[in-house]
Design a protein that fits this description.
- The protein is mainly α.
- It has helices at about 1-25, 25-55.
- The longest helix is centred in the C-terminal third of the chain and has 30 residues, at about 25-55.
- The protein is elongated, with a radius of gyration of 18 Å.
- It starts with a helix and ends with a helix.
């Protein structure tokens, strides 16, 4: 049952993404940009933490 729910959730997400891209490409591009900015910020935060850790936590 859980596998079917996962498949349905993925299917719904893909259909929603395609609908969004087809109906409003500019808004879809904004969502992609927001997503990549979030990933970039998270990677920078991890890098800053690792630098802090490598410097002895000072």
């Amino acid at each position: 049952m859980a596998v079917n729910a996962k498949k349905v959730a993925v299917y719904v997400l893909v259909v929603f993404a395609l609908y969004l891209i087809i109906t409003d490409p500019a808004k879809a591009a904004d969502y992609v940009q927001i997503g990549f900015e979030g990933i970039s910020d998270a990677a920078k935060a991890v890098g800053d933490f690792m630098t802090w850790l490598a410097n002895g936590g000072k």
